[in-house]
Amino acid sequence: MTALQPTGPHLDVDAEVITQFTWDYVQHRPQLSRLYEKGKTSQWNATTDIDWSPEVNFGEVRSAEDDPAGQMFGFMDAGPLAKYGGDDPTRRAQLRWEFQSWMVSQFMHGEQGALVATARLVETVPEIDAKYYAANQVADEARHVEAYAKYLNEKLQHSYEISKPLEALLIDIMSEKRWDITYLGMQILVEGLALAAFGLGNAMFQDPIIKQVTDYVMRDEARHVAFGVLSLQGLYPEMSSAELAEREEFLLEASQLMYDRFLLEQVWERMEIPVAEGKEFAANNPLMAIFRQMLFSKIVPNLNKLGLLTPKVRELYGNLGLLQFENAPDSATEELGAAAS
Which among 35, 204, 250, 293 is placed 20 to 30 Å from 5, CA to CA? Predict the structure, then answer.
């Protein structure tokens, strides 16, 4: 039974896992080998490759001409903020900066989840090809956590704790001993959602440093999601109906957690807006709904590629308006196609 012990700023997750050594050192997966080679030549240094010199002034009120993010964010001014000081330019600017701080903080927490989960994959996956690439990804994830932490601690000087839905999903992923569910939860769901969120976030972020960091991270994340698709491809058609039902149940719960993750409870609380009103706005505003749907744009085609859009998963995704992405290119096809061009 999984036990969780709060230890101050830490969270301990107990899990029984099976460590797999392999004495077969021949790489049998050419596509994974290509991805591994691309990963080796795509490293960057968070200390020297990012220009950390610009000032970042949290809460700065900017003119409309200098603030395209604010223009994109304008629809939120008509939400609950309108009742609680929305006519004040300082309050409107604060909402944009709080959203940026919250989103980057969740990126950082998710990247630490990926760091730990991918280290687990090195230990538990059976093939040498996957161990090689997972080890390469561990270095990527450490760099991502480093970059986001440096930005939040030294430049923005403003951050958020991990959101409850993301924490719950990380606990579910890390308490699993079945390596394919670690892939599903982290490489397909968390990393897939993050890949879309990076692009959407960068359209709203307000300073050049975080845009540069996230551009670099996005290049790595595209490979990471492709790694999950390639590693799981062909696995699920071989499983029994009982085994597939367990994966289906995991996907249903995890997808709902990820969808609910963007109701912004922590932001409303920080803005001193009644959380219930903020959540209702985030859940029902048409533009917020489109935002949440776009976050799944990389997840749905990957699940379709893996044969995991089962009737129950399709029903949930249909209710959430996500099936529009079903026939988009999957991440492995996109990434390997880009590598070949």
Answer: 250
Residue 65 lies in a domain: no
Token digits of residue 231:
């590693």
Sequence-distant (6+) residues with CB within 8 A of 234 are: none
Partners of residue 4 on adjacent β-strands:
13
Separation of alpha carbons 130 and 228, rounded Å: 10
DSSP for residue 239: S
Can you give the CATH number for the domain in which 100 is found?
Answer: 1.10.620.20
Dihedral sign, Cα of residue 127, residue 132, residue 137, residue 143: positive
* Higher-scoring residue by pLDDT: 68, 15: 15
Residue 63 CA, distance from chain mean position: 31
- Asked whether the beta carbons of 92 and 77 are under 8 A apart, the reply is yes
- 89 is in which domain, residue-wise? 27-42+85-340
Element (H, E) at 279: helix 275-284
Q: Side chain identity at 128, as an amino acid letter?
A: I
Rounded to an integer, the average pLDDT of 144-166 is: 96
